[in-house]
Amino acid sequence: MKKRILGAAFAGLMMTAALGAAAPAPAAPPAAANLQQYYPGPGIYCGNDIGCMPIAYSHEVYSDAGLTNLIATGSDSCTGSGSQVYVSSPQLPGGYDVKTPMYVCTDFGPYLPMDW
User: Fold this and answer.
1) In angstroms, how far is the first alpha carbon of the chain from the final one?
2) Strands, E, within 35-76: which ranges?
3) Where would I find the H helices in the chain?
4) Model's pTM, two decimal places?
5) Whether the Cβ atoms of residue 85 and residue 106 lie closer than 8 Å to each other
6) How does pLDDT run across 33-69, given as a tens digit for each residue?
7) Average pLDDT over the chain, rounded to an integer
8) Are 76 and 103 in contact (CB under 8 A)?
9) How far is 65 from 69, CA to CA, in rounded Å?
10) Domain-wise residue ranges, the chain
């Protein structure tokens, strides 16, 4: 009798551990018809009319965490053409970099999404 109870308890414990260890399935991107703004990763923008392209940022670098001492500024630029479009970032000193999205780099030039 004790063996059956222990066996059932152990089986339930193993099932709970197995179910708890299962990773949730990653969320799928929205359907193309409903895609307005989707970020598959940092620095990438996807939209119905342009596909997925890199984002160009303006940079303000501060020397302190309170963002009171500005030490440098700069802006990304779009380079490449066709399917080889990417962002070129300026070389700035180390510090607290505050990035603000400026536009999306596309194969037909800089693009400002309507929802920005």
Assistant:
1) 68
2) 44-47, 51-62, 70-75
3) 2-21
4) 0.63
5) yes
6) 333 455 667 899 988 878 889 999 999 999 999 999 9
7) 75
8) no
9) 9
10) 29-111
Taking the C-alpha atoms of residue 113 and residue 116, their distance in angstroms, rounded to an integer, is: 6
d(CA 57, CA 64): 20
Helices (H) and strands (E) in the chain, counts: 1, 7
Residue 25, both tokens: 């399935």
Whole-angstrom CA distances from 30 to 26, 38, 54 are 12, 8, 19
Q: How many CA atoms lie within 13 A of 90 on its CB side?
A: 15
In angstroms, the CA 43 to CA 49 distance is 18
| Cα distance between residue 5 and residue 37, in whole Å | 54
- Scanning the structure block, which residue is given the tokens 């392209």? 53
